[in-house]
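Meet today's protein:

…
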Amino acid sequence: MRHARRRVVRRVTRLAAVGGLLLGGAMVTSAVASEPPGPVIGVPYAAPPATGEGTGLVTRLGASRTAGSWVDAAGRPVVAVTDEEAAAEVEGAGARAKLVRHSMSDLKSATDRLRSTPRVSGTSWALDYKRNEVVVRGDSTVSAAAWARLTKVADGIGGFVRMERTQGTFTTRLNGAQPILSTAGRCSAGFNVTDGTSDYILTAGHCGPDGSIWFADDRGRRQVGTSLRGSFPGDDYSLVKYDGGRAGKGADVVVVGDGKGVRITGVADPEVGQKVFRSGSTSGLRQGEVTALNATVNYPEGTVTGLIETDVCAEPGDSGGPMFADGIALGVTSGGSGDCAAGGTTFFQPVTKALTELGVKLIVSERAGGTGASPAPSASPGAASPGASAPITGETVSTLLTRLSDPRNVGPGLLVIAGSLVALVATRYIRAEQDRKAYRRHYSATWG
């Protein structure tokens, strides 16, 4: 029996590591989830972020009197303001105010100026709300001459544009050097979505052009779906339509390892300083925080704007994988620099914009497993409170792997499970205990 289990593990590991496509740790089906109520269709903006008070104040006060918001280490919203009257209004609303020199209008004017300059591959810029600056970064591929020209432009804008060199290179997190299951490369599943007629996987746009066919084995015999309606560069999102038309039960669960799955219950835009988690088929579950918003990255393939900047690490093959916090879907992995050994910067396509542009809705959990939290205010009736996690009950991992190896059980959903489990359980890929403990620490009320 022990030898048989080893053969099963090797077989599924080979499926994930060699086949690799869309094996990101995002979707699971009823084979790994406990039996929650069936998933329901959420609305494009199912819930505001838990830290949305600061964003609301920024919207109300306007771009000329504010310069963004973030959450501090204690979880309290902080709003950058340009005058004492605005500061008093922020404090009166229960948030903390920080007086700054440059407004959001100033910061965005600076990025508009940078965007109008000749494009330099290997550069990025983002708004640093905490320092009231625009940060321009250049990777190791940017020549000294190109960096000097860009620095001259920054100097002309003003002293609030900070120039930084960074290690490594800004690349999409697609791994084209490994054996692939499409003409584009290996990617990770993001979130399950639907247009009401068919179900899809939301993933990164750079994972493949429209018409790319994705397989779950290295011989091209087990087709998962076909890419369509992608946008890259400019944005970085696309859909993979399930061949069977349906994602199946448990499509609302993200595997986080140790027999746990976090139910996805809504979608929102993140805030700077927010603690986030992401998973991917190469490096598994990782944690970090949002460092900037509205980031622009000049990849070798083209420029992508409106991204979420984080200090979460990622590696090739993690493209398209989900970023979430407390069960709220936030983004899908686009690209970045560095790796999970040395650390780095990773950018994410906001889910909210992708859903709006694609005309699809997130598939979310009907309820949150009795955490007592309030349902998302604009979600469908009976929508879940964010982030309830569910134990994988009724089966051990070895039993599940045995089921996965049975040809009678092979299908798109089960093949995604295989990659999800292997990617998130194997110690080769993840520091499982550290990151699961971090999830418990930040979201203990929703950990099953």
User: Anything to note?
Assistant: Residues 1-51, 174-180, 368-432, 444-448 have pLDDT under 50 and may be disordered.
